[in-house]
Design goal:
448 residues, 2 domains, nine-stranded mixed sheet
Amino acid sequence: MLITNATIFTNSQSRPWIEDGAVYIEDGDIVEVGEKEDIEKKYRYEKKNESLILNAKGHLLMPGMVNLHTHLCNSLMRGLNLNDSDPLVSDRISKRSRWKYDKTLDLESVYYSALVGAIESVKSGVTMVFDHHSSPNAIKDSLNSIYSAVSSVGIRASLSYEISDRSGKQKAIESIEENAAFRVKTSNLPNDMIHSMIGLNSSFTVSDDTIKEIRKVIPDKEIDFHINLAEGVEDNKDSYLRYGMSVANRLARCGILNSNTIAAHCVNLNDEDKDVLAMKNTIIVHNPESDMRNAIGKTDIKGLLGRGLTVGLGDAGFGYNMFQQLRISYLLYSDWKKEISQFFSKTISSMLLKNNYSAVFRLTGIPLGKIEEGYKADLVILDYPSPTPVESGNFIEHLITAGGIKSKVDYTIINGKIVVREGKVVTVSEEEIFETTRVLSQRILSYM
């Protein structure tokens, strides 16, 4: 495939911006990127087949985005009236809404909710998701159902099931077995489109005995864990009460925290927790909109980055639009610190445009996030008709202030294949899927 006539944000230090450029792709990889005339001349035989040429004139080409923590199954929560009058906001949302919703999911709704989440992700320019799933009454084969859905859409995915004691010991064991079985399956797959991790809900819902059971079923010394950490105040309250130590210390003692662990949220941490996370080099994921919606506080991004931690960006199933998460994170942090500076824009944007990709490489070995030779051809073509010039020096400001939310994703290309063309998903029928999910959502509501 040849993409030509594009303004290219390569996200590469050596040459971050090409005004009139082209990219040649073969077998899912970027072979070469450069000036339009040079690339077209070198790969001119491609012009014999017009279907393999994308003319991106007037458009911006950039790397596809990664959502480092999401819940694809949340896509069918939209519009459901889950509110009540309980004043304990974080308790209400976790125990009475999300957890109650999770219990309504069967394998059919798991599959279709994942389809919707994947569709909305690729239409927003997201090319890889790290999904953290829960369906206590449909545990077995739930990850296979999600795998089938994301594969149909064509998005890269890392999948995990949230192990938890909240539905009883037997369900916890079934959750461990589901993770273990899917881990074996992904290790034998012939491509790098699907990855697996071992999911944990939150520390306060997972006992030491359950963690010992994980080690028994999966005895590997190094395990990639994906856990909610200190999302609310419950984790540290429970940890001090039951174990006499902070939540990060407790998880470190149990062998959960390591350099291949994703710790999502990390809102209600104390300094001791942050130091432990830094010592273990754990990957942190900030989820600004979800945290705001749940009224649980703000992640200390500066404090975590200052300790040398990789802090990435996710959405925790809140909208599947990483442009939006980037903008909200910037605004939230500026308001919190009562300060406006270029430091914030560079720091916040690096979470999406640098740290997410480095986390992917650390966990999977897949080179994403740059438009240069040897990287995977996971790309997004944006229609962004800006009233002011867009160039290398101000691109990040455009992206934060307007570029993301005001631009239209015309094309999403994953592993060298077109998944979104002219704003429409081409791999599955969005209309047919939504017809089904409207019925499923009503069934879900009737169970709640």
